[in-house]
Specification:
Blueprint (H helix, E strand, L loop, with lengths): L5 H4 L10 H4 L12 H8 L9 H5 L6 H9 L3 H9 L5 H7 L3 H4 L12 H14 L15 E5 L3 H12 L3 E5 L8 H4 L9 H12 L3 E3 L10 H7 L2 E4 L5 E2 L12 E3 H13 L23 E5 L3 H13 L3 E6 L25 H4 L3 E4 L1 E8 L5 E13 L6 E5 L5 E4 L2 E4 L3 E3 L5 H4 L12 E2 L2 E2 L5 E3 L2 H4 L4 H20 L20
Helix pairs in contact: 3-5, 3-9, 5-6, 6-9, 7-9, 10-19, 14-15
Pathway: Amino-acid biosynthesis
Pfam families: Fer4_20, Pyr_redox_2
Keywords: Amino-acid biosynthesis, Glutamate biosynthesis, Oxidoreductase
């Protein structure tokens, strides 16, 4: 490695964040830009560990020690070449990935792990600064035409790979802009949308065609899709949110989290926030948290994003409740290194102000005489392990039922599966037991011309898994069309199969 003693000399240091008062007044990214000297120092912490388990922790198989070494040598061109060989969009993963690679870092056994996510961001930002990110236009075209339906990270990655293989690729999106949940789900304070547009300009110059405002299955029928294209790759994500069926669900003020987040991203972009991706008006109009008591139901990243957005709106109070027990502060014995650790995580949104509670169940949404939400009836839960199965079982704590103020409730309990009505039913694809598209590898079990990748195939997951799925599906499509594929194959995970389902 560039500095064999670096892990002994330097501590893990993440980039500085803008002050809470400053960042609550805007929607710009929270972290300050990486500097060359800081990036070099953090890369120096990558040790000569023998077996780099970080490779296994990363679903993309990123070649991490090698690009760290290049950063230490300040050879940014080589660092970018290594990183981009496995990761199409390090500008995404360097900002919004939970970094499973860091959880598998050998240094992390007894010290804070290498700041791999930060270094990825530093490499790609330096690459754009030095004009190293240039369109790679294929020298030959195969004459084959492929439709990629859904423009999130899985669709974008697949489109990029298939275009590089020489196929004509059309990336379709039912919203007005390309990007999927990265565009209209991830808040700008985590990923500014100019980052997406910068990448799309490169992809368009490489020959990929973008079609927006195309609701495939409605504006373009399934049979038309199959007639026009040699192969169809479905990457529309997991879009059906998990609902709660309790009394008062109909009240004004109860919303799915993604409706709230996408509206704010549209405001930031100067786009009408009163209509959804189909141009239809939202049932309850604009959702504004200013001067309201906000309760976020669900303790994951989407719930955290609702917390940060509500704070920027100027909510009176923000409470986040979670059904499950509070995780341990440190890595739990049930998830030893190099597995993805079960532990408490505090986001930048939580740091900005939020009252967090665990082992809470929502019993009822309570409204006023005008049908507006005013309170939430909740109850404490006691979780105990079943002595026979070892599984956690919950019971309500007697006498703990109470009402808390709530003008806005955001349901952030995850997603079930892709929307089956319309395109998927028209294509007659089969579904697995969870309602996701059933495939053999990445190829639909019902039609050999139809493939699937990302959350619509594997279920709700991480951005890094979406990119990995898109790359692997592109290889499968290429093999189907050409008999053989020279696209990059992902390294097989040997040590950490448990994270494949995280």
């Amino acid at each position: 490695m560039g500095k064999p003693t670096g892990f002994l000399e330097f501590e893990r240091e993440l980039p500085k964040k803008r002050s809470i008062d400053e960042r609550l007044s805007d929607y710009r990214e929270i972290e300050t830009a990486p500097t060359d000297s800081h990036s070099k120092q953090q890369a120096a912490r990558c040790m000569d560990c023998g077996i780099p388990f970080c490779h296994n922790g990363c679903p993309l198989g990123n070649i991490i020690p090698e690009f760290n070494d290049a950063v230490f040598d300040e050879n940014w061109a080589l660092a970018y070449e290594i990183l981009s060989s496995t990761n199409n969009f390090p500008e995404f993963t360097g900002r919004i990935c939970p970094a499973p690679c860091e959880a598998s870092c050998v240094l992390g056994i007894n010290k804070p792990p290498v700041a791999i996510e930060y270094i990825e961001k530093a490499i790609i930002e330096k690459a754009f600064e030095l004009n190293l990110v240039k369109p790679r236009i294929p020298k030959f075209r195969t004459g084959r035409k492929i439709a990629v339906v859904g423009s999130g990270p899985a669709g974008m990655a697949a489109a990029y790979q298939l275009n590089q293989a020489g196929h004509a690729v059309v990336l379709m999106e039912r919203a007005d802009k390309i990007g999927g949940l990265v565009r209209y789900g991830i808040p700008d304070f985590k990923l500014e949308k100019s980052i997406i547009d910068r990448r799309l300009a490169v992809m368009e110059a490489e020959g990929i065609e973008f079609r927006t405002n195309v609701n495939v299955g409605v504006t373009v029928k399934a049979n038309e899709l199959l007639d026009e294209f040699d192969a169809v790759l479905l990457t529309m994500g997991s879009t059906v949110p998990r609902d709660v069926k309790i009394e008062g669900r109909h009240l004004k003020g109860v919303h799915f989290a993604m409706e709230f987040l996408s509206q704010q991203n549209k405001r930031n972009a100067g786009i009408n926030p009163e209509v959804d991706h189909r141009g239809a008006p939202y049932t309850n109009g604009q959702i504004i948290a200013k001067d309201k008591h906000v309760v976020v139901i669900g303790g994951g990243d989407t719930g955290s994003d609702c917390v940060g957005t509500s704070g920027r709106h100027g909510a009176t109070s923000i409470t986040q409740i979670e059904l499950m027990p509070i995780p341990p502060k440190d890595r739990d014995a049930s998830t030893p290194w190099p597995n993805w650790p079960m532990m408490l995580r505090t986001s930048t949104s939580h740091e900005e102000g939020c009252d967090r509670h665990w082992s809470i169940n929502t019993k009822e949404f309570v409204g006023d005489e005008n049908g507006n939400l005013k309170e939430l009836k909740i109850v404490d839960l006691d979780w105990q392990k079943d002595p026979e199965t070892g599984r956690l079982q919950m019971r309500e704590v007697a006498g703990s039922e109470r009402n808390i103020p709530c003008d806005l409730a955001f349901l952030a309990a995850g997603f079930l599966h892709p929307q089956q009505e319309g395109l998927l039913n028209d294509l007659e694809v089969e579904f697995d037991e969870r309602g996701n598209i059933k495939t053999n590898g990445y190829q639909s079990t019902s039609n050999e011309k139809v493939f699937a990748a990302g959350d619509c195939r594997r279920g709700q997951s991480l951005v890094v898994w979406a990119i990995s799925e898109g790359r692997e599906a592109a290889r499968a499509v290429d093999e189907y069309l050409m008999g053989v594929s020279f696209l990059e194959a992902k390294a097989v995970s040997m040590f950490n199969p448990a994270f494949a389902h995280a």
